[in-house]
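Known limitations

Files may contain more than one protein. Parsers should not assume a single record per file. Below, a two-record file is shown to illustrate correct handling: read the sequence, read the C-alpha cell line, then continue until end of file.
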Amino acid sequence: MFTGLVEEIGRVTAVEPSGDGIRVTIHAPRSVADAAHGDSIAVSGVCLTVVARDGDGFTADVMRQTLDMSTLADVSVDRLVNLERATAAGGRLGGHIVQGHIDGTGTVVEVRPGDQWRVIRVAIPQHLAPLVVDKGSIAMDGVSLTVSAVSDPAATEPWFEVSLIPETLEATTFDSLQPGSPVNLETDILARHVQRLLAFPSAAEAAPTEGGSR
C-alpha cells in the first residue's frame, strides 16, 4: 500500500527480456536504503517487487499484463521514474490510499503554465471517466493528486485536469510533461468499489429468502 507521495526520482539502468515480460534495474539509493528481497516499491505508480538489490539500486520483474496496462511497455535505459516505498504501518497518510494497481494510461493534451502552478490536462479512456471526480483523488505516475477539473459526462473525449505546485514539479518527473506524454493512472479505490457494486442487483434483490430459496 502506498500514499502517492514520491520519495525519490530513480533512473532506469538496465532493461532485459524475461519470458514474456521484462526485468528492470533502477538506480534508487534512497529507496533501497532499507529494502529487502520481496519488498514492494511503486515505480511511476506500478507496484513492483524487489527481486535483487545492491548498494544503490534494485531489480524487479514486470509481467506482460503490467506492460500491457502501463507506460512501462516502452521503458528504456536512462528513463526517470517516480519511486515510493510501501507505507509502514502507523505512518502518516499524506496523500491517499494508492495500491500500485494501474487502471490504464492517459495522454497529456495540454500544459498551461501559471505564476504559482502548472495545469495539466490529461485525456483518459471512456471507461475511466466515471471514476474521476472534481476535487477527488487520482494517482498519476504514482503521485497523489487532487483533480481540479473534469470534462462533462456527455463528452466523447473525456479528460481531467490537475494543478501542480512547484514542489510537486521539483520532486517528481512531472516537470518534463508535455502534450503527447503518456501517464499511468490509478483511480480512487472507493470509486472502483462503488462502480463494481452498482453492476450487481441491489442487496435487497440479491438476498436469499428464508430457507435459502428465492
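...continuing to the second record:
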Amino acid sequence: MWNTSDLPGGGGVLCVSGAGTEIGKTVTTAAVAACALRAGRSVAVLKPAQTGVAADEPGDVAEVLRLAGGGGTAPDAMTGAELARYPEPLAPETAARRADLPYVSAHQVAEAAEKLAASHDLVLVEGAGGLLVRFDDRGSTLADAARLLAAPVLVVVQAGLGTLNTATLTAEALRARRVECAGTVIGSMPATPGLAERCNLADLPRYSGLPLLGAVPEGAGALPPARFSAAAPGWLTPELGGTATVPAAAG
C-alpha cells in the first residue's frame, strides 16, 4: 500500500484529484500538508490551473498554506505555486479558451512538480474538479500529469449518495491509464452521518477497490489554522501521515 513515509526525501509527489467538484479537495490537500509539516517535512503545493478567482484574490494554494501553516511551521518549510489563473469558474480548458489565455499542459505540470520536488520532501499537486477535466485543447488531464511524474493520485470523494459510482468510475479511469491510486478520502463528513454516509465507509473500498484513507469533518476549513493543523492527523490514516482509524460502518 502506498504510504507518504515511503517517499524519498526531496522527491515525493502526490496528485490530489476529486471524484467531482466542491467536495473538499482543497481542505483535504491542506490536511495532508499539515500532517507532513507536523512530521518535520517540507511541503510544496502546486495548483496547475486556478479558475473562478480574480487576479488579486487568494486561491486554493493560499487556502492550503493558510490552514496547513497553523502549526507554527517555519516559513521556508512550505511554499505554493500556480501555473495559470482564469477568471471564470469553469473547467481550465474552457476558462482559458473563453478568456483567450494560454493553456496549461500536462508536461508543464510535470515539469513544475519535478522542480519543486528537488527542494521539498512532498509536493502536492491539486487538480481542478474531477480527474478527467481538461487542461488544454489537446485533452491533457491531471491523470496525464500523474503518469508523466509516475506519481500516485489521491481521490477525494463525497460522503453520501452517488459517491460509490463516481469513486468507482475514477478508480477505473486511473487503472485504465496505469496510474497508481493512493486511495480515497471523504472530503466533508457530516457530524451526524445519515445511513448512506455510514454505509459508504465500508462500501467505498468494496466498490472502488481502493483503501479509504480518512474522512475530513464537514466545516473543517472554517477552523482557525492552529486548530486545523492540530486536528488534521486525527482525520487521516497513517498512510497519509495521520493517526486515524477509519470508523466502522453502520450495520
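Parsers that stop after the first record will miss the second one. For reference, the second record is described as follows. Helices lie at 25-38, 60-68, 92-99, 106-117, 142-149, 163-176, 195-208, 225-231.
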